[in-house]
Automatic annotation (TrEMBL):
SUPFAM superfamilies: EF-hand. GO terms for cellular component: mitochondrion. Residues 220-388 form the TLDc domain. It is found in: Mitochondrion. It comes from Vannella robusta. Residues 436-467 are annotated as: Disordered. Belongs to the OXR1 family. Residues 91-126 form the EF-hand domain. GO terms for molecular function: calcium ion binding. This is Oxidation resistance protein 1. Keywords: Calcium, Mitochondrion. It comes from the Eukaryota. InterPro entries: EF-hand-dom_pair, EF_Hand_1_Ca_BS, EF_hand_dom, TLDc_dom.
Length: 467
């Protein structure tokens, strides 16, 4: 392997097995077989198990686990256990040795500055996708954007070299001892392969950027991890904002007219134009887009929108697709249709007037595949989020502190929400005016006793709390 006689090497398979209990071995074996479906795993199969990590980092992990063996041959379960043991059950020196292999892809026993920066950048990109800026000091400033953090990683890599032309193991082990989060993230990466429910260590949790506050959220669509990932894709300054529910089919019915109206009349504390649209179809696909420009009910049968817009998939795959520059067909809206990307009669995806049916196609505008489960899909749920910056959030809820918003405080606050049935206009009049609520939303129940009325009032309140 190189790097000097003092550098630990992979344990033999029998020695690796001896470090685990029978139940631990069973968990690892089952986890590997669940991933591979057999007793070996190719690099392509291995990379597919890390959708958030990116191809560069997952390739480095695979090469390190192969311990210098040919990458054209699939990795066996025995090889995986040997490498996994180095980082999971190893001493500090063994863990450092495994991490050294992530950067020393040629197993020469030394790492050039270019190799070190490239490897560290790939590792940190994978961590950032999970909202883990590994070289960010919490509380020192606002969480960095991806571009800002990449600049920090570049500086860290340069300082680690200390002016040396190459980094040997004796220098590397000194460096990584000061950055335990690197070893912790590598361990977490491999642990998730055999245990999907593996939680982050306290060291990583302390670094993790918290999800945006999901104000007035009805918990119907996205998870905290999905919200964190989606927030990391947003450009400045939107990536530092919290989210405020502007429209949700779960609480406001299936009506495109209501979505347009709610976006137009949202709270003054919210940013005027930007929004995040999230859709779930009957096939379980969750997708949508970010749009810095406002939605217009009557846009004059033309495309409009900002090139900062992007579309995304959150389930079953996690991916972001940004504007390719092929065309400027971002948003297309009429009272009867909301469409994104593509071209007339072949949009990237659409929602109909009653938000019952949609259509999805591959789209050159964003270079994306079909995002929905099928070309013609049934809509299960739709959410539209507005964005609110931290100062405006403080103002909205009367928080005077200059520090980050107190999540525990907001969890106890309530905001009186006005039911659509309590507005001055009846839903019948709204239907006649063409801005009504879909028949998919049932009229409110009538209560004859005080207890039922109290319960209904509880339902009309929106708890303000993070996902």
């Amino acid at each position: 392997m190189g790097g000097g006689a003092s550098r630990p090497t992979f344990p033999a398979y029998v020695a690796a097995r001896s470090r685990y209990s029978r139940s631990e071995l069973g968990t690892i074996t089952k986890g590997f077989e669940d991933c591979a479906g057999k007793s070996s795993l190719s690099m392509e199969e291995f990379q597919s198990k890390f959708p958030d990590a990116g191809a560069a980092y997952s390739r480095l992990l695979f090469l390190a686990l192969r311990n210098g063996n040919r990458i054209s041959r699939p990795m066996s379960d025995e090889e995986f256990l040997q490498g996994y043991t180095m980082i999971c059950k190893g001493t500090a020196e063994e863990q450092a040795s495994f991490c050294f292999d992530l950067f020393d892809i040629n197993h020469s026993g030394k790492i050039s500055h270019a190799e070190f920066h490239k490897g560290l950048d790939a590792l940190c990109d994978a961590a950032f996708a999970l909202s883990l800026p590994l070289f960010f000091v919490p509380g020192s400033s606002d969480p960095p954007t991806k571009e800002e953090h990449k600049e920090t990683v570049k500086k860290v890599a340069k300082r680690a070299m200390g002016g040396l032309p190459e980094l040997k193991f004796e220098h590397f082990i000194q460096w990584i001892s000061s950055f335990r989060q690197i070893k912790e993230f590598v361990l977490y990466s491999l642990d998730r392969l055999v245990n999907k429910n593996k939680e982050m260590s306290p060291i990583l949790m302390a670094l993790r950027v918290q999800p945006p506050l999901m104000l007035k959220d009805d918990k119907s669509l996205i998870t905290p991890d999905q919200a964190i990932l989606l927030r990391s894709w947003l450009p400045e300054p939107y990536c530092k904002c919290h989210w405020f529910s502007v429209f949700s089919t779960k609480s406001q019915g299936y009506s495109l007219g209501t979505l347009y109206r709610n976006h137009e009349t949202k709270l003054e504390h919210l940013m005027k134009d930007p929004s995040i649209l999230v859709i779930k179809d009957e096939g379980g696909h969750i997708f949508g887009g970010f749009f810095p420009q406002a939605w217009y009910k009557n846009a004059g049968e033309r495309f409009y929108g900002s090139e900062e817009s992007f579309v995304f998939s959150l389930a079953p795959e996690k991916a972001v697709y940004r504007c390719t520059g092929e065309d400027s067909h971002i948003m297309y809206t009429t009272p009867e249709l909301l469409a994104v990307g593509g071209k007339l009669n072949y949009f990237g995806f659409t929602l109909d007037e009653e938000m019952v049916n949609g259509i999805s196609h591959p789209c050159l505008t964003f270079g994306c595949p079909q995002l929905a489960h099928s070309e013609q899909f049934k809509i299960v749920s739709v959410q539209l989020w507005g964005l609110i910056d931290i100062p405006s959030t403080r103002a909205l809820f009367g928080i005077d502190s200059d520090e980050e918003i107190d999540v525990d405080l907001l969890q106890t606050k309530e905001e009186e929400g006005t039911s659509i049935w309590e507005r001055e206009e009846s839903w019948v009049l709204d239907e006649l005016k063409g801005v009504g609520y879909s028949k998919n939303l049932a009229p409110p129940p009538e209560f004859s006793d005080e207890e039922g009325e109290t319960e209904e009032k509880k339902k009309s309140k929106r708890l303000i709390m993070p996902l």
